[in-house]
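Full entry
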Amino acid sequence: MNARGTAAVAAVAKRLPSLSLAEVVATSGLMSRTDRKYVLSLNDFLAVTDVLSLRCLEIGGQRVFGYSSTYFDTPDLAIFRAHRQDRRRRFKIRTRTYTDSADTYCELKVSGRRDETVKVRRPHPAEAAHGLTTPALTFLDDALTAAYGRPAPRPLLPALVTDYRRTTLVTADTRITCDTSLVWRSGARSLAAGDDLVLLEVKSASERNSVTEALAKLRIREQSVSKYCAGLVALGLATGGNRWRPALRRLGVA
């Protein structure tokens, strides 16, 4: 996704009423939620935003923000394989840096009941964004033991970096993240997703909401996509990723 997609999202965001971060957290700050993902053309994105009553997150006068996430896995990609095999007790481990402020967190995402996603996180030193500190490993061990009865696997190494731009839109019952300018990186390898697309994630406490209903009326289908898993497959770092091939084709990299 190149600058054209980012510009299109920014243009929509500019005309919407704003919300502060505190207001977004109060209305839709979901750490336990149901996520639905879609890969939209710019025309479909504009069609969806035209039929919804939306507000936009604004911080310091900005509505489009830079994100960089480093994902960690074992040398044999056990975390990736758990997602490929759709295991019930699967999870992702990453650090996330908000590049406009350099605020960084260590995050754990686990899959709960009924396709629910549960995320926990703690502050992490920005200078260690591509590594896991001893306090971070302790946090991960404790959180995974509480969720699944076992600590985090070892060793955990940086496997993939994702860079992108994000705009957050809010309705009365959902939070919608709109990601553009997506680039995957690992070592000397890098790959940018195709242009004229928006990766939309609909985050809600329930599976059915105003956004998913609007998407269904426009005949826009949900797309199985994981930035981490799809990125490994796109860069040729993992095999057996056929479940993400349709998304990669939509993203222009398959």
Remarks:
- The first strand starts at residue 18 and ends at 19.
